[in-house]
Amino acid sequence: MVRRATGAGGRQRGARRPEVRLPPLVPYDGGGLEPDGDYDGVEFTEADFAGQDGRGARFMDCALTACALDEARLHHARFLDSVLTGIRGVGTDLAESTLRDVELVDARLGGAQLHGAVLERVLIRGGKIDYLNLRTARLKDVVFQGCVLVEPDFGGARLERVEFVDCELKGADLSAATLKDVDLRGAASLEIARGVDRLSGALISPAQLLDLAPVLAAELGIRVEG
Protein backbone atom coordinates (compact mmCIF):
# COMPACT_ATOMS: atom_id res chain seq x y z
CA MET A 1 0.00 0.00 0.00
CA VAL A 2 1.37 3.42 -0.94
CA ARG A 3 0.81 6.17 1.55
CA ARG A 4 2.12 9.56 2.48
CA ALA A 5 5.20 9.39 4.66
CA THR A 6 4.92 11.82 7.51
CA GLY A 7 6.89 13.03 10.45
CA ALA A 8 5.70 14.83 13.53
CA GLY A 9 2.49 16.73 12.94
CA GLY A 10 1.73 14.73 9.78
CA ARG A 11 4.31 16.55 7.65
CA GLN A 12 6.96 15.08 5.38
CA ARG A 13 10.43 15.47 6.87
CA GLY A 14 12.97 16.60 4.29
CA ALA A 15 16.57 15.46 4.05
CA ARG A 16 19.32 17.51 5.62
CA ARG A 17 21.97 18.23 3.02
CA PRO A 18 25.69 18.22 3.76
CA GLU A 19 27.44 21.54 4.27
CA VAL A 20 31.02 20.77 3.31
CA ARG A 21 33.58 23.54 3.84
CA LEU A 22 37.01 22.27 2.91
CA PRO A 23 40.12 23.74 4.55
CA PRO A 24 43.26 24.55 2.54
CA LEU A 25 44.30 21.25 1.00
CA VAL A 26 47.65 19.54 0.49
CA PRO A 27 48.25 18.02 -2.97
CA TYR A 28 48.39 14.22 -3.07
CA ASP A 29 51.97 12.91 -3.26
CA GLY A 30 51.08 10.07 -5.63
CA GLY A 31 52.33 7.33 -3.34
CA GLY A 32 49.30 5.07 -3.88
CA LEU A 33 46.52 4.02 -1.56
CA GLU A 34 47.32 2.01 1.53
CA PRO A 35 45.10 -0.25 3.64
CA ASP A 36 43.97 1.68 6.73
CA GLY A 37 45.60 4.79 5.30
CA ASP A 38 44.79 8.12 6.91
CA TYR A 39 44.25 11.03 4.50
CA ASP A 40 43.44 14.36 6.15
CA GLY A 41 43.00 17.56 4.13
CA VAL A 42 44.39 16.03 0.91
CA GLU A 43 43.54 17.04 -2.66
CA PHE A 44 43.52 14.16 -5.15
CA THR A 45 43.38 15.34 -8.78
CA GLU A 46 43.21 12.89 -11.71
CA ALA A 47 44.77 10.17 -9.57
CA ASP A 48 44.59 6.61 -10.92
CA PHE A 49 43.57 4.27 -8.11
CA ALA A 50 42.52 1.42 -10.42
CA GLY A 51 43.02 -1.92 -8.68
CA GLN A 52 44.60 -0.37 -5.59
CA ASP A 53 43.94 -1.53 -2.04
CA GLY A 54 42.66 1.16 0.31
CA ARG A 55 40.60 -1.06 2.60
CA GLY A 56 39.75 0.67 5.87
CA ALA A 57 41.24 3.98 4.71
CA ARG A 58 39.99 7.27 6.17
CA PHE A 59 39.45 10.36 4.03
CA MET A 60 38.74 13.46 6.12
CA ASP A 61 38.28 16.94 4.63
CA CYS A 62 39.45 15.68 1.23
CA ALA A 63 38.71 16.52 -2.40
CA LEU A 64 38.85 13.83 -5.07
CA THR A 65 38.57 15.21 -8.60
CA ALA A 66 38.50 13.18 -11.84
CA CYS A 67 40.02 10.14 -10.13
CA ALA A 68 39.83 6.59 -11.57
CA LEU A 69 38.50 3.95 -9.15
CA ASP A 70 38.15 0.89 -11.39
CA GLU A 71 38.23 -2.25 -9.21
CA ALA A 72 39.61 -0.17 -6.33
CA ARG A 73 39.28 -1.98 -3.00
CA LEU A 74 37.86 0.49 -0.48
CA HIS A 75 35.96 -1.95 1.70
CA HIS A 76 35.13 -0.39 5.08
CA ALA A 77 36.65 2.97 4.05
CA ARG A 78 35.41 6.23 5.57
CA PHE A 79 34.75 9.43 3.64
CA LEU A 80 34.01 12.31 5.99
CA ASP A 81 33.40 16.00 5.14
CA SER A 82 34.70 15.43 1.61
CA VAL A 83 33.82 16.28 -1.99
CA LEU A 84 34.17 13.74 -4.81
CA THR A 85 33.84 15.29 -8.27
CA GLY A 86 33.92 13.51 -11.61
CA ILE A 87 35.13 10.20 -10.23
CA ARG A 88 34.78 7.20 -12.51
CA GLY A 89 35.16 3.48 -12.20
CA VAL A 90 33.75 0.01 -12.76
CA GLY A 91 33.48 -2.52 -9.95
CA THR A 92 34.59 -0.17 -7.18
CA ASP A 93 34.34 -1.97 -3.83
CA LEU A 94 32.94 0.34 -1.16
CA ALA A 95 31.14 -2.37 0.78
CA GLU A 96 30.45 -1.51 4.43
CA SER A 97 31.99 1.91 3.91
CA THR A 98 30.84 5.12 5.60
CA LEU A 99 30.02 8.34 3.77
CA ARG A 100 29.12 11.19 6.08
CA ASP A 101 28.78 14.85 5.04
CA VAL A 102 29.85 14.02 1.49
CA GLU A 103 29.09 15.52 -1.92
CA LEU A 104 29.38 13.15 -4.89
CA VAL A 105 29.19 15.20 -8.07
CA ASP A 106 29.03 14.02 -11.71
CA ALA A 107 30.17 10.48 -10.94
CA ARG A 108 30.37 7.84 -13.67
CA LEU A 109 30.26 4.48 -11.95
CA GLY A 110 29.27 0.97 -12.93
CA GLY A 111 28.64 -1.92 -10.58
CA ALA A 112 29.75 0.02 -7.50
CA GLN A 113 29.48 -2.14 -4.38
CA LEU A 114 28.08 -0.28 -1.37
CA HIS A 115 26.23 -3.15 0.27
CA GLY A 116 26.12 -2.71 4.01
CA ALA A 117 27.36 0.87 3.70
CA VAL A 118 26.22 3.82 5.83
CA LEU A 119 25.37 7.07 4.06
CA GLU A 120 24.45 10.08 6.18
CA ARG A 121 24.04 13.64 4.92
CA VAL A 122 25.14 12.78 1.39
CA LEU A 123 24.34 14.66 -1.83
CA ILE A 124 24.68 12.68 -5.06
CA ARG A 125 24.35 15.25 -7.84
CA GLY A 126 24.58 14.68 -11.58
CA GLY A 127 26.32 11.82 -13.33
CA LYS A 128 25.25 8.26 -14.01
CA ILE A 129 25.56 5.18 -11.83
CA ASP A 130 24.75 1.76 -13.29
CA TYR A 131 23.90 -1.29 -11.16
CA LEU A 132 24.54 0.40 -7.82
CA ASN A 133 24.52 -2.20 -5.03
CA LEU A 134 23.11 -0.73 -1.81
CA ARG A 135 21.73 -3.96 -0.37
CA THR A 136 21.28 -3.78 3.43
CA ALA A 137 22.78 -0.28 3.42
CA ARG A 138 21.54 2.51 5.70
CA LEU A 139 20.74 5.84 4.08
CA LYS A 140 19.76 8.83 6.19
CA ASP A 141 19.49 12.40 4.91
CA VAL A 142 20.55 11.46 1.37
CA VAL A 143 19.61 13.43 -1.76
CA PHE A 144 19.86 12.05 -5.30
CA GLN A 145 19.70 15.09 -7.57
CA GLY A 146 19.87 15.31 -11.36
CA CYS A 147 21.49 11.88 -11.69
CA VAL A 148 20.64 8.69 -13.56
CA LEU A 149 20.42 5.45 -11.56
CA VAL A 150 20.14 2.32 -13.69
CA GLU A 151 18.88 -0.77 -11.85
CA PRO A 152 19.92 0.34 -8.36
CA ASP A 153 19.57 -2.40 -5.74
CA PHE A 154 18.13 -1.21 -2.41
CA GLY A 155 17.25 -4.75 -1.29
CA GLY A 156 16.97 -4.93 2.49
CA ALA A 157 18.21 -1.34 2.85
CA ARG A 158 16.82 1.25 5.25
CA LEU A 159 16.08 4.66 3.75
CA GLU A 160 15.17 7.56 6.02
CA ARG A 161 14.73 11.14 4.85
CA VAL A 162 15.88 10.33 1.31
CA GLU A 163 14.92 12.56 -1.63
CA PHE A 164 15.02 11.98 -5.38
CA VAL A 165 15.10 15.31 -7.23
CA ASP A 166 15.11 15.58 -11.05
CA CYS A 167 16.77 12.17 -11.28
CA GLU A 168 15.92 9.07 -13.30
CA LEU A 169 15.29 5.90 -11.33
CA LYS A 170 15.27 2.95 -13.73
CA GLY A 171 14.44 -0.61 -12.68
CA ALA A 172 14.94 -0.08 -8.95
CA ASP A 173 14.85 -3.08 -6.62
CA LEU A 174 13.23 -2.30 -3.25
CA SER A 175 12.82 -5.90 -2.09
CA ALA A 176 12.65 -6.07 1.72
CA ALA A 177 13.64 -2.39 1.98
CA THR A 178 12.31 -0.11 4.73
CA LEU A 179 11.33 3.43 3.76
CA LYS A 180 10.62 6.33 6.08
CA ASP A 181 10.08 9.91 4.92
CA VAL A 182 11.28 9.07 1.41
CA ASP A 183 10.24 11.66 -1.19
CA LEU A 184 9.98 10.32 -4.73
CA ARG A 185 7.80 13.11 -6.13
CA GLY A 186 10.69 14.95 -7.77
CA ALA A 187 11.98 11.95 -9.72
CA ALA A 188 11.99 12.66 -13.46
CA SER A 189 11.18 8.99 -14.06
CA LEU A 190 10.28 6.25 -11.59
CA GLU A 191 10.53 2.58 -12.48
CA ILE A 192 10.22 -0.06 -9.75
CA ALA A 193 11.24 -3.52 -10.95
CA ARG A 194 10.79 -5.33 -7.64
CA GLY A 195 9.54 -4.50 -4.17
CA VAL A 196 6.73 -2.11 -5.05
CA ASP A 197 5.03 -3.39 -1.90
CA ARG A 198 7.79 -1.70 0.12
CA LEU A 199 6.70 1.80 -0.92
CA SER A 200 4.87 2.26 2.37
CA GLY A 201 6.73 5.18 3.92
CA ALA A 202 7.25 6.94 0.58
CA LEU A 203 5.64 10.06 -0.83
CA ILE A 204 4.74 9.96 -4.52
CA SER A 205 2.78 12.18 -6.89
CA PRO A 206 -0.65 11.38 -8.39
CA ALA A 207 0.98 10.98 -11.82
CA GLN A 208 3.51 8.51 -10.42
CA LEU A 209 0.68 6.55 -8.82
CA LEU A 210 -0.94 6.18 -12.23
CA ASP A 211 2.37 5.07 -13.76
CA LEU A 212 2.84 2.48 -11.02
CA ALA A 213 -0.76 1.22 -11.22
CA PRO A 214 0.04 -1.80 -13.44
CA VAL A 215 2.88 -2.90 -11.15
CA LEU A 216 0.74 -2.41 -8.06
CA ALA A 217 -2.12 -4.34 -9.63
CA ALA A 218 0.18 -7.23 -10.48
CA GLU A 219 1.61 -7.20 -6.94
CA LEU A 220 -1.89 -7.38 -5.47
CA GLY A 221 -3.05 -10.01 -7.92
CA ILE A 222 -5.63 -7.70 -9.51
CA ARG A 223 -6.69 -8.51 -13.06
CA VAL A 224 -7.44 -5.47 -15.18
CA GLU A 225 -9.43 -6.11 -18.35
CA GLY A 226 -11.17 -3.76 -20.77
From TrEMBL:
**Family annotation (InterPro entries):** 5peptide_repeat (IPR001646)
Region (Disordered) residue spans: 1-28
Keyword Repeat recorded: yes
The reply on keyword Repeat is yes
SUPFAM superfamilies (alphabetical): Pentapeptide repeat-like
Q: Which UniProt keywords apply?
A: Repeat
Name of this protein: Pentapeptide repeat protein
Species name:
Streptomyces resistomycificus
